[in-house]
Write a structure and sequence with these properties.
Residues 289-351 form the Mop domain. It holds the Pfam family ABC_tran. With 351 residues, this protein is α+β, with helices and mostly antiparallel strands. The protein folds into 2 domains: 2-225, 3-Layer(aba) Sandwich (Rossmann fold), CATH 3.40.50; 232-345, OB fold (Dihydrolipoamide Acetyltransferase, E2P) (Beta Barrel), CATH 2.40.50. It contains 9 helices and 21 strands. The chain has helices at residues 37-45, 93-98, 106-115, 131-143, 161-177, 189-195, 213-217, 223-226, 327-333, and strands at 2-10, 13-21, 26-30, 52-57, 60-64, 69-70, 78-81, 149-153, 182-186, 198-203, 206-212, 232-243, 248-253, 256-261, 270-276, 280-283, 294-305, 310-316, 319-325, 340-345, 349-350. The strands form 4 sheets. Strands 7-8-9-3-10-11 form a 6-stranded mixed sheet, sandwiched between helices. A 5-stranded antiparallel sheet has the order 2-1-4-5-6, with helices on one face. A hairpin with a 2-residue loop joins strand 10 and strand 11. The protein is globular and about 70 Å long. The two termini are 28 Å apart.
């Protein structure tokens, strides 16, 4: 468990956080520029000190203003990957990787190198590397210090789009294969969806919300950050079965099934999907003889009147799905909160 209970005045920004984060998976620190995201992980790393409060990692106190205890940065067992790679230009890639590593076994070194796809770069110097390659080396260097937690401060922000997509694939694999918790600072919705398990939503130095990606994304509090003209729902569901005949995959939706285009995942493996509200319709009775494969039973839990449409949230097996309908349809069908309905999902995007 990572416990953060701090206050820090940074110019006009009053940073304040009280969090208990599990030491597994990827927790995204998300918010607009100037929200205090980087300032928060700098406090965890020891690069800055809190004015008040404490930070504890696995019951080990990193800093406590009351007892005046503060573990030096280099003794905190924390890996840090900055926005820029910060490699030593006079060292080869291998030299950079080995810097700070403590008696790393050859097998472990080779595993990290292969995981990040940098084995062919070991003899090269940073000047000859692309931005994405430099960041992969920086990540490898951080991992080889045997950290208890990995901090990543917008590692994709300085890369062009092709390099971002390339490094994103490595980060996805990394998050699935290493047993090290990651605090990942970002303001990118794409990175949030692809990489994070949980989200700390920050605004003006304060923690506005903390929960799973699905719950944060589907909540009303997150609407301003999505910047979309329509609602969308993010769902994380396990694979139930594959239908090779039609190249489709069924996801378990409680007692119901949601069909998507076939994915390369084993039964039981979770898949994250995104459903846009314009691809969802609502019916009072179960539609018959329709080409739409996904018809799910649920209950209306929220209705939001917009300028040109009505957004309706339907709770299906504990998951919220948004649908956008016309005001004409709402006036005619008179949907109300608590009403049992059927949702038809026309399209699903796998994240």
């Amino acid at each position: 468990m990572l416990q953060i209970n701090i206050k820090k005045q940074l110019g006009k920004l009053a940073l304040e956080a009280n969090l208990q984060l599990p030491v597994q998976g990827v927790t995204a620190i998300f918010g607009l520029s100037g929200a205090g995201k980087t300032a928060l992980i700098n406090l965890v790393s020891g690069l800055t000190q809190p004015d008040e409060g404490f930070i504890r990692l696995n019951d080990r106190t990193l800093v406590d203003s009351e007892t005046q205890e503060s573990v030096p940065t280099h003794l905190r067992k924390i890996g840090y990957v900055f926005q820029d790679a910060r490699l030593f230009p006079h060292y080869t890639v291998k030299g950079n990787l080995c810097y700070g590593a403590n008696n790393v076994a050859k097998d472990e070194f080779n595993y990290i190198v292969e995981l990040l796809g940098i084995s062919h770069l070991l003899k090269r110097y940073p000047l000859t590397l692309s931005g994405g390659e430099k960041q992969r080396v920086a990540i490898g260097r951080a991992l080889l210090t045997d950290p208890d937690i990995l901090l990543m401060d917008e590692p994709l922000s300085a890369l062009d789009l092709p390099r971002k997509r390339e490094l994103m694939l490595y980060l996805e694999r990394l998050s699935q294969e290493i047993n090290i918790p990651i605090l990942y600072v970002t303001h990118s919705l794409d990175e949030l969806l692809h990489l994070a398990d949980r989200v700390v939503l920050m605004e003006n130095g304060k923690v506005k919300a903390y929960d799973s990606v699905e719950r944060i994304w589907n909540s009303a509090i997150f609407v301003p950050w999505k910047g979309e003209k329509e609602q969308s729902s993010v769902l994380t569901l396990p694979v139930h079965l594959h239908n090779p005949t039609y190249k489709m995959t069924a996801l378990s939706f409680g007692e119901q099934l949601l069909w998507i285009h076939q994915v390369n995942a084993v039964v039981g493996q979770v898949v994250r999907i995104c459903v846009y509200s314009s691809d969802v319709s609502i019916a009072l009775q179960k539609p018959q003889q329709t080409s739409i494969r996904n018809i799910l039973f649920g209950q209306i839990v929220q209705i939001e009147m917009q300028d040109s449409r009505v957004d309706i949230a339907v709770l299906v097996e504990g998951h919220k799905i948004w649908a956008s309908i016309s005001k004409w349809a709402q006036n005619e069908l008179r949907f109300t909160v608590g009403m049992n309905v059927y949702v038809q999902i026309k399209a699903v995007s796998v994240v």
